[in-house]
Amino acid sequence: MSATQYWLSPRDALAEARQVARIVDNWQPHFAANGISEASIEKLARHIDRPFLQEQRLALILRGS
After folding, report:
1. pLDDT for 4-44, tens place per residue?
2. Are 41 and 31 a contacting pair, CB within 8 Å?
C-alpha cells in the first residue's frame, strides 16, 4: 500500500511507522502491567517478537534517531 492511500506523505508515513514501532517494542511491560499472565506473554512473544519483526521495529526506531 502506498502512503498516499492514507493521505500521508512518505515522510509522514515513516514517522507514523516509527511511532508504532516504538510502542510495539514495549508491549511486554504494558501487557504485564495490565494483568496478562506471563504464560500468555510468552506465547504472544513467539509471534510478536519473531526475529524478522524485531529487526523491522529496530530498523524503524533507529532510523528515527
Report:
1. 777 889 899 899 999 999 999 999 999 999 999 999 999 99
2. yes
Domain boundaries, the chain: 15-63
Handedness of CA 18, 62, 65, 63 (dihedral sign): negative
Instruction: Tell me how long the chain is.
Output: 65
Q: Write b or e for each residue in 38-49: b if 16 or more Cβ atoms lie within 10 A of its Cβ, otherwise e.
A: eeebeeeeeebb
Residue carrying C-alpha cell 502491567: 33
Residue 34 to residues 11, 37, 41, 62: CA-CA distances in angstroms? 33, 9, 11, 28
